[in-house]
Amino acid sequence: MEDKSYRRTLHSIIENYIPQDILEERNKSKSWDYGYNKEFDMVVISKNGTIGNVIDINDLAIALPKQPEKIRNERLMPKDQKWHRYKVPDELMNFDKYYSDSEDLDMELMNVYNRHESFIKQDYDRLENGDWFLNDGNAVYLTGYAYFFFQHYYLTDMKRYPDLRMTQVDYFYWLEACIADYRCAGSLYLKNRRSFFSVSSASMVILKGIRTFNGFFPIVSKNEKNSEKLFTKQIVKPFNRLPKHLQPQRVGEVDPKKELYFSSPKRKITTKNKTNGSSEGLDTLISVYPTTLDAYDGEQSTMSINDEIGKMKGNLDINEYWEQAHKECHIVGSEVVGKALCGSTANPPTQGGINYEKFYQDSKISIRDKFGNTKTGLYALFIKADYMLMGFFDEWGYVIYDNPPKPIKNEIGKMVEIGSKQFLDDKELSVLDDPKKYNSRKRNFPRTDTDPFRDEDATSMFGTEGVTNLKNFLKEYSKTDDYKEKVTRFNLRWKDGVVDGEVERVINPNGKFIGCWQPPRELLNRFVERDGKKYPVNGHIGAFSCDPYDTSRVRFGTGSKMGFKGLTTDDNYALIKEEDRNLLFLHYNHRPNTIDEAEEDVIMAIKYFSMPILVEINKDSLGKKLKARGYRGYCLTNPLKQDRKLLTEKEIELGGIHYSNSDSQKKQLDSALENWLIKNLPNKVDEKNIKIPYIDVLEELEIYKPEDRQKRDGTVALQYVVVAANHSKLRKTHSNQDFKNQNINFRQIFAN
Predict the structure, then answer these.
(1) Does some domain include residue 692?
(2) N or C, which terminus of the chain has less Cβ within 10 Å?
């Protein structure tokens, strides 16, 4: 059997998602309802009451229909099993041409319909329920929208019908799920360049439009010119190429510029505009609208296209555009009444990219309210460039992702020896020494959902080659059993419920903490008392930092995560293995519901690991709580201020660091982290020298800029923990001229 392991799809099959007995029983009765199924937390896109595979796309469980017993292409050899369009009767494709001189068009049309009744009924059924076919031995389901696109949607620019791409098949699964889910107001696609958003959306609007009574389908883009271009090229021209049984009656011009109206006209449009008695029409409008807040003024939308909304004219904020005007056209009260198809590439941060990034983050399905809604109501999707690259699809439409075992023919008939991943990796490496070119490439060919928001004209001060290489390495290594054994999620809790007693760790796959190391058991939960105060015993091994927040800065439940990190030292006397030194051993990866929850987690961590902590005290709630609870001895006092006279009153009282915008302090923090990254994250990565085993931490480092400080809590916390874990060295080496004879002892490190 030929090795096809190079293939990748957007979806993955979730094995045994539904108990087998329940699945069989309900399939037999065909009792699965189309839409969101709360019992199994999945979206059913099957319309025949059955379920086959349950797939995952972007953490959304989607239930497909059960595969039928008979399936198209089953008599062909696997290599010959491919998608091909059904033959449309010539009379349906060219009715107006053949019968333009007829005196009774209605009668001719009826006769044509009767002659091709079988095809028409089957076509309508496939448009409603979808279609199945075998593709190189694999059973593939096309949704009704996908079937319409590949069967009937004519690409006017390319002068042909679309080739099947499995990435696009998956995209249509996603869109169908967004339509089926009553909690969802539509899809937001973070676009690649040359993506299929426009044509996919246009084809959906056409299909929905020709089958909807009293429908309203608004179209907007970044400006009116682009809206009109999309309408003309992607809607009107493909509509005019549809077979006759899919063209409802309409009024107006054959090639309208701004609106397509399906109604009950006094005359039916033909090639010669012959008068043809009236009949019932749809009363449905597809129309272009300007890119303004009051574009269609609260009219209830059936389905809308919102193209390049991350680049709206006049720097119109997409968040304002959506919330103040257009969201209410799709959501009335608590009910979703229409679906929005949104998609956009991203401008650089200074050109609206920041606004679009917020809109995208607010649409992620991982962050929902108690009703199951995202903040925008939309479901965000990102497809990395590896799945979209021309020249890297095989003959059956599958992505050639990994390097094929032997050269393979791609979709344009050329032999390729490497996969899209290797190709893009090599392209990135070729411009790695030029930050501007590198950022430009990452934006144009994004592989993470942070890449599109890069600033081509600026670089992250911490986006070193080592950071990028480690991030890319972890993307694959994190899937291995070796990684999963080393890096675990867990929670902390007070043993037996005794607050400020001992702390115990509880392994939990959804835990708040992610860790990869801890001190020996005998060193956990220990402390010493001096002068009536408690101090940790493992300060020589590591330290913590925290960039806390309060309600004025973070709206809990909307996606913010606390900046809390743990780092080991590199001191030989710490008596830990070399590979465990300079290790970011703890990462808090949780969105707390309350400040108290977050602060309690911090207290339990420093108590459990018995390590000191450096806390930013501009917002002093945590610092005050630590002092009140008897943990002042755990709090490092600003190590950057060697002259204790420079300490603020709050730093003296609570410990911690009172952040200021002074050039000296910023430079110290920036320099400390930059030097640590260069030293500990080499360009060449393997599983033995991973000092930051968390992809999200590395991704934030890649995009961090000083002006982003307020929203990059994780990177700020990383700066602090590098300083905290190396506080003794800082004291010994900082300003040798002034401090070379200074005797640093335990009490000075944990100064009152």
Answers:
(1) yes
(2) N
